[in-house]
Write a structure and sequence with these properties.
By secondary structure, the protein is of the alpha+beta class. It has 2 domains: 73 residues, TATA-Binding Protein; 78 residues, no CATH class. Helix content is 44%, strand content 14%. It has a 4-stranded antiparallel beta sheet, with helices on one face. The chain has a two-stranded parallel sheet with strand order 4-5. Strand 2 and strand 3 form a beta hairpin. The protein starts with 14 loop residues before the first helix and ends with a strand.
Length: 206
């Protein structure tokens, strides 16, 4: 079967219109890049820090950006598709030594803006194993909860594993939810309530 009867096309005869069109598009593209301040490289192509933050409700992106920009300068905040309660926060770093300092600034800025901290208490939704173990060790002993150090460490791991497991993914709304964790009883729940509070977000991934 013959699809094309005439296969003699004069491609070279139309070279100049295509060359001109290509040059026009190239100049327009370069002009657009220049007007926007250059190419915006992603975090993979520049030194920077990335943090995933999950909120208990839809995150106020502009409020997050404003809170962090005042401390860190250029900050990119994007909502994750498929999870309306999670955002990615990206910021540039001058060097690797600034990583911990930047993380601390992010934590403090978000806590002051969204954490509603309670005096002297630990933010459970952003607690680490070390910080939670240190906070609970003496209060549990005073409450009559007899745990060896390995048992305390295992309890903390189980509690945080529950917190970090979907659909919670780092954020719980009530400490009473922890009653379903093996080994957690009413005394432990009461100590947690005395020593911890719940912020509306969880930070991870920096």
């Amino acid at each position: 079967m013959e699809l094309f009867k005439n296969t003699n096309f004069d491609f070279l005869g139309y070279k100049w219109p295509f060359i001109i069109a290509s040059l026009v598009l190239t100049v327009a593209g370069l002009g657009s890049i220049a007007l926007k301040g250059g190419i915006k490289y992603g975090i993979d192509f520049r030194s920077g820090a990335m943090m995933y933050v999950k909120f208990t409700g839809p995150p106020p992106v502009e409020k997050i950006r404003s809170a962090l920009s005042s401390q860190l300068g250029s900050v990119d905040v994007q909502s994750l598709t498929g999870d309306s309660n999670e955002v990615i926060i990206e910021t540039e770093l001058k060097d690797e030594r600034a990583l911990e300092q930047t993380r601390g600034i992010m934590v403090n800025s978000l806590t002051n803006t969204f954490g509603q901290p309670q005096s002297g208490k630990l933010d459970f939704n952003n607690a680490t194993e070390d910080s939670l173990s240190s906070r609970l060790r003496e209060p549990l002993q005073k409450a009559g909860v007899a745990l060896s150090e390995p048992q305390l460490q295992q309890l903390v791991k189980d509690i945080l594993a529950f917190r970090n497991t979907p659909p919670r993914s780092g954020v719980i709304s009530s400490l009473d939810q922890l009653s379903s964790v093996p080994g957690v009883n009413a005394n432990i729940i009461n100590v947690l309530k005395q020593e911890c509070y719940l912020s509306s977000f969880h930070m991870a991934g920096l």
